[in-house]
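A reminder from the course coordinator: this example appears on the midterm review sheet, so study it carefully.

Given structure:
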């Protein structure tokens, strides 16, 4: 037997590789070095706005706190923002503050979700600020994916989207219809690129949010929609996360009042966009993107005209509906507003003045009217089949969704075809002189002088 062969029952000799492995194992068992002085974990603040929620507040906050304490890898702070509640909500919030170390309570003397978010976010020292509805309708598993792109610097704002293809949503047909119609209006009349403005599950980098707050005017339900619109018009990046969402049957939102406030808010933002007041000074580290040349001004003007046309259509339809069937009232209101819309966009959005080709532009723009008429007529037929005794307001809601879709077609038609700059340039270019036979005269100046 060779001397290098191990004897039976005796351990094999240690090699250099064995020694290195043992050294590495001992090193891994040693305590890891503490962070350097001044270093700290990132802090995320979650605001829960509440108004008269004494029946659900404690259960929801304990559930949220337990989830974050067990599953969230970063420091967190839960801030209960009481919006002038008249029940025992404030007392419950104070008790939770005393019970849970990461919970604090803030009281406001006036109502308004936007007002509460403005106060807490504006004074926050966290790296990321966020908010979620007290009913926790949105699955908490989406919270880390919501804030991760903000902490990495990939995005500036993040929203949960119930309209994302990866979302799982449980809610009634009425809320589903209202939500989809509202977001469709934002995308068509305001050129918004985000899909779900109303989901109560949003976050933002604190420095970015605080830079935007001074320009957000709304104090109630339109607050976060206005924040998103201003951010988008400032070239900021908005990340969307699909969510699991279950409707809260106890929701006490006044839908009619909210719709009216939202329309007013859309008009205000559109008006400010045209004036150029939405391009905000932002922190140097925030990267801003640009739209193609001319697109920003055109979208801004088109948005203002679109909101005005929508409001005019709503008023005309409601008036005419008292005198005529729904199909006729819709056709008349749509025709009047389509003519006015084309004329206004011709002058203000695409800068075409004078009477030349005005009638031609109206005829060409009439294609959008025909498309809108077909869509809205089909919508009325479907509405009548599903709900034969639907109110005039219900009909109007269905029509708004159909007309919002036709608005996209109108803008594309106007920009790409009717008022296309290349087409206008060719139309206005001087024509070369021609001979009597209709062929181009290529004679030289000397030849012309002898004629």
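Designed residues:
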């Amino acid at each position: 037997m060779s001397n290098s062969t191990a004897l039976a029952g005796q351990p094999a000799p240690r090699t250099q590789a064995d020694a290195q492995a043992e050294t590495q194992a001992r090193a891994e068992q040693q305590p890891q070095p503490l962070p350097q002085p001044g270093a700290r974990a990132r802090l995320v603040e979650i605001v829960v706005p509440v108004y008269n929620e004494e029946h659900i507040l404690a259960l929801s906050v304990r559930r949220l706190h337990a989830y974050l304490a067990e599953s969230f890898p970063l420091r967190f702070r839960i801030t209960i923002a009481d919006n002038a509640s008249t029940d025992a909500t404030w007392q419950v919030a104070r008790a939770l503050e005393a019970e849970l170390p990461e919970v604090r309570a803030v009281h406001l003397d006036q109502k308004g979700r936007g007002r509460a978010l403005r106060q807490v976010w504006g004074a926050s020292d966290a790296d990321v600020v966020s908010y979620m509805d007290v009913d926790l309708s949105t699955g908490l598993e989406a919270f880390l994916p919501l804030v991760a792109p903000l902490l990495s610097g990939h995005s500036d704002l993040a929203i949960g989207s119930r309209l994302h293809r990866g979302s799982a949503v449980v809610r009634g047909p009425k809320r589903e219809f209202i939500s989809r119609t509202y977001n469709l209006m934002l995308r068509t009349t305001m050129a918004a690129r985000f899909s779900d403005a109303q989901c109560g599950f949003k976050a933002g980098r604190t420095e970015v949010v605080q830079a935007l707050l001074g320009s957000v005017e709304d104090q109630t339900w339109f607050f976060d929609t206005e924040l998103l619109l201003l951010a988008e018009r400032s070239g900021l990046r908005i990340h969307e996360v699909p969510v699991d969402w279950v409707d809260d049957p106890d929701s006490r939102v006044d839908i009619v009042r909210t719709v009216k406030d939202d329309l007013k808010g859309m008009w205000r933002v559109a008006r400010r966009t045209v004036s150029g007041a939405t391009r905000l000074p932002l922190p140097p580290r925030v990267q801003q993107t640009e739209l193609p040349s001319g697109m920003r001004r055109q979208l801004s003007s088109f948005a203002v005209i679109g909101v005005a046309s929508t409001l005019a259509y709503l008023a005309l339809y409601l008036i005419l509906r008292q005198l005529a069937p729904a199909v006729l009232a819709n056709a008349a209101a749509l025709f009047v507003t389509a003519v006015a819309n084309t004329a206004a966009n011709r002058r203000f959005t695409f800068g075409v003045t004078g009477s030349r080709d005005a009638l031609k532009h109206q005829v060409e723009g009439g294609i959008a009217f025909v498309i809108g008429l077909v869509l809205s007529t089909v919508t009325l037929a479907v509405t009548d089949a599903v709900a034969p005794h639907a109110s005039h307001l219900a009909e109007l809601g269905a029509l708004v969704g159909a007309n919002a879709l036709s608005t996209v077609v109108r803008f594309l038609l106007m920009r790409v075809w009717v008022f296309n700059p290349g087409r206008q340039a060719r139309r206005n270019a001087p024509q070369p002189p021609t001979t009597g036979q209709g062929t181009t005269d290529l004679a030289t100046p000397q030849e012309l002088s002898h004629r």
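DSSP finds 15 helices and nine strands in the chain. Confidence is low (pLDDT under 50) at residues 1-12, 23-39, 434-451.
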